[in-house]
Design a protein that fits this description.
four-stranded mixed β-sheet, 25% helix, alpha/beta, five-stranded mixed β-sheet
Length: 239
């Protein structure tokens, strides 16, 4: 029986360093659970911030951290790990999600791996369309990229953002007929399989204009169209 040494710490998004006052228990594998933003975590609120050295000095054997939803191993021996979240919630949480399984022998971490637990995955699919001359060729290239993505996640429904990139003479046509482009990408996804939903299409193409490069970035669909697509996706997932 392991002794209960846990304690709820009064942490808030106050910018102050999180402090853990519980000492390690000799003779046991000591695990620390902490919801914190370790220094260096970009694009995250500084919730109960701390430094890796703060955690190392406690003498614990393993730190299981929360707050950052991307899996990261910040340090080994002692292991300081963000396992990430169990399920991606939006396009900024791409890839496989799940838990970290840790094997301990003789008071020491001997093995550690990620165990997928998610039921749906978000992905960004970059499609290079340099040199294409018509939308059919764009669709062919998108089909190749989406098929590779589907093969990398067999059995999983995918919510995919397609990003069209490159220098092409049909740059203006893509921007001028975005509904057609979006419909074409939906068709490509359906041809590959029923598990692919096109969340959005972004047009980040370029055209050469008298030696200068003109870059245009655009995303298809209004916010109302986006909400409608999300509603359709949720209905499809409940069938």
């Amino acid at each position: 029986m392991w002794p209960s040494t846990g304690r709820v710490l009064p942490c808030a998004m106050c910018g102050k360093t999180s402090r853990v006052h519980i000492r390690r228990v000799p003779g046991y594998f000591n695990i620390g659970l902490l919801h914190t933003a370790v220094q260096g975590q970009a694009y995250h609120d500084p919730y109960a911030p701390c430094h890796i050295d703060d955690l190392r000095r406690k003498g614990y054997d393993y730190w299981a951290l929360g707050h950052v939803h991307m899996r990261q191993i910040l340090h080994e021996y002692p292991h300081i790990v963000y396992p990430g979240n169990l399920q991606g919630r939006h396009i900024r949480e791409t890839g496989a999600k799940g838990c970290t399984v840790v094997r301990v022998d003789g008071g020491r971490v001997t093995e550690m791996w990620q165990q997928p637990l998610d039921v749906l995955r978000w992905e960004v699919c970059d499609v290079a369309i340099d040199g294409v001359t018509d939308l059919e060729e764009v669709a062919d290239r998108a089909a190749t990229s989406l098929a590779a993505l589907a093969n990398a996640h067999p059995g999983y429904p995918l919510a995919v953002r397609v990003v069209l990139q490159g220098e092409t003479e049909i740059h203006g046509m893509l921007l001028g007929d975005e509904d057609r482009v979006y419909a074409e990408m939906i068709g490509v996804g359906q041809d590959i399989g029923s598990n692919i939903w096109i969340e959005q299409v972004r047009i980040e193409t370029k055209r050469l204009c008298q030696g200068n490069t003109l870059t245009m970035r655009h995303r298809t669909g209004s916010s109302a169209h986006y909400r409608l697509r999300v509603a359709i996706w949720h209905c499809w997932m409940t069938l």
